[in-house]
Amino acid sequence: MIAFMQNLLGPAWPVVWTLVKIIAIVAPIMGAVAYLTLAERKVIGFMQVRMGPNRVGYFGLLQPIADGLKLLMKEIIIPSAANKTLFLLGPVLAIAPALAAWAVVPFDVDMILADIDAGLLYILAMTSVAVYGVIIAGWASNSKYAFLGSLRSAAQIVSYEIAMGFALVGVLMCAGSLNLGKIVVAQAGGFWQWYWLPLFPLFIVYFISAVAETNRAPFDVAEGESEIVAGFHVEYSGMAFAVFFLAEYANMILVCMLAAIMFLGGWQPLLDVAPFNMIPGFLWLIIKVALLLFFFLWFRATFPRYRYDQIMRLGWKVFIPITLVWIIVVGGLMQTPLAYLFH
Amino acid sequence: MNFNDYVFYVLAAILLFAGLRVITSRNPVHAALHLVLAFFTAAGIWLLLEAEFLAIALVLVYVGAVMVLFLFVVMMLDINLDKLREGFWEALPIALPVGILMTLEMVMILGSKHFGVDRVAAPTPHPAGYSNTAELGRQLYTDYLLPFELASVVLLVAIVAAIALTLRDRKDSKFIDPAEQVKVKRADRIRMVSMPADVEIPAAAETEGKDKA
To answer: Which keywords does UniProt give here (chain B) (predicted)?
Structure first.
């Protein structure tokens, strides 16, 4: 089949084949995003002793599709004083990096779109570009609430990126590679070989920073309803708003995927013995990501929103020192006979 | 021309356009965004030169952090463009020769004599297993260890100095010490007052009943 298509398309084959692979990654992500919104409403519903959506389809299963259709049909209102080009560019810049980062994510052994050596750096670069969508949207809306929201978001993302980057430095010290596939391979052999154990403080810092990076509760001051209505996307409606929504959830899945790859052994089974290693690696990755995503929803239902100055204090005065100290500890212990703990 | 050349010319055209828009754009935010575009395309050209680590670092540091803060400031400034252009014609007689001189100097140094294709040839393609990132790291931490450490110390001093220069310790500013907040015990905030049930309640009920009647 593949050989036949290769003959048929000739020189265009690599382009077509890459496009097919991209669709094979992006389409499931979009499906996952849609059903993550349903899962979020259901989980938070049950935590607050209510039912959650249960009218559209059996058990509310068609709710995301109904929501999507509704948003598609709505008009995109552009405020008259807005900067039109940038107003429309904002959602595009929000979703593009959120999807581009998936290019280097390894789903299983050799199941990866672009197996580049600097994969970790590429991910960091892409996630840091994502902030432009928020800033541009907030500024182009020409609205005080939107602008305040975008400034808060920009400051928050830039601050937590540092803690996140340092947490990842610990991972690459242990794995000795920036290639995500090699990082997973370095964690082979049961859950005590995964990096969450030797790098426990970094794992916690990474995960909390990930919540802050994606602007999720309790760090969602960028869209704090009680203060600035809806923050940077207050002026957006219809599909333009939905694209921001998609980007937020795609980013959530991405950071959970990265946490699973770097601290929870990626596609490695829980234990490398009979019943566990019969489950395909891809499924293990999905299980881990789903577990981490559940924590995101759980946080949202549990914690009250942080005050803005306390968010900054947590990022700069607590997380960055913790990561710096632990990197030094790891670097020191790697020179002692205890080095086997970090491989 | 092969495929890489086409990519190079497209990226170079975008880079020149973006660079031009940075200095000609009327809106400072547009100028900053075009600078972001310029950095991005420059990273693309570096990728063509097989310098993937530098390309990603450029995006990570300049696009991801420096330009965000830059944009942050530019967006909050209330810039009156007419006022900025006021002194244009008075400054031109001095600025024009200086600008031309600088351009000439740059042409002399960056011209084809020193940076021509024959001088700086395209890098020979590396084998598949070659890692630019690892090679750069090895160089930085062996051959160039001292300059690298010196540069990092200089940067650290700059950071500390920037904070020390701008940190004003205002006496009248109110701030909260989170450590104090966490240390608070119930007894510090709540005073328990014993209020025994009143015995006069039946009497009150009686008067109420009388009123109704």
So the answer is: Cell membrane, Membrane, NAD, Quinone, Transmembrane, Transmembrane helix, Ubiquinone
